[in-house]
Design a protein that fits this description.
Blueprint: H1 2-23, E1 26-30, E2 35-39, E3 47-58, H2 62-67, H3 69-81, H4 85-89, H5 91-113, E4 118-128
Antiparallel strand pairs: 1-3, 2-3, 3-4
Helix pairs in contact: 3-5
């Protein structure tokens, strides 16, 4: 019975250490302050949204992403400012906007640095009126 226990425990330890190594290779950059901008509203009132955005950055590229943060922030604001109210207020629309922002951020970083540097763009908070 013990001859099967040792290999199993070794595999368990090996698999958990691999997960820790992979998780440690990412850092997060958060835009401060939150992004507050308007969108295309269908009524006479002004529609606005407040979003907390986090970028999952690969390796030691956090300072590079931080350097380009104003460009990235502007791109996110431009994308949101072109959205219709129905898209902003729907869950599916928000995920489409998030994906569009992620693709644009990666494209800008490739243009500026030659690499996307960002693994994922996350909306961690979304408030709209």
């Amino acid at each position: 019975m013990y001859k099967y226990l040792i290999p199993f425990s070794f595999l368990f330890i090996l698999s958990t250490s691999t997960i820790q190594v992979n998780a440690a290779s990412y850092a997060y950059y958060g835009f401060q302050p939150d992004i507050v901008t308007n969108y295309v509203a269908s009524k006479k009132k002004i529609g606005f949204v407040r979003i907390t955005v986090e970028l999952m950055v690969e390796g030691d590229n956090l300072t590079i992403v931080e350097h380009h943060a104003p460009l990235l922030r502007d791109a996110i604001i431009d994308i949101i400012g072109q959205q219709e109210e129905a898209k902003v207020k729907s869950i599916k629309g928000r995920s489409e906007i998030q994906l569009e922002c992620e693709e644009q951020v990666k494209a800008l970083l490739v243009q500026e640095t030659g690499e996307p540097l960002v693994k994922k763009l996350l909306f961690t908070q979304w408030l709209d009126n």
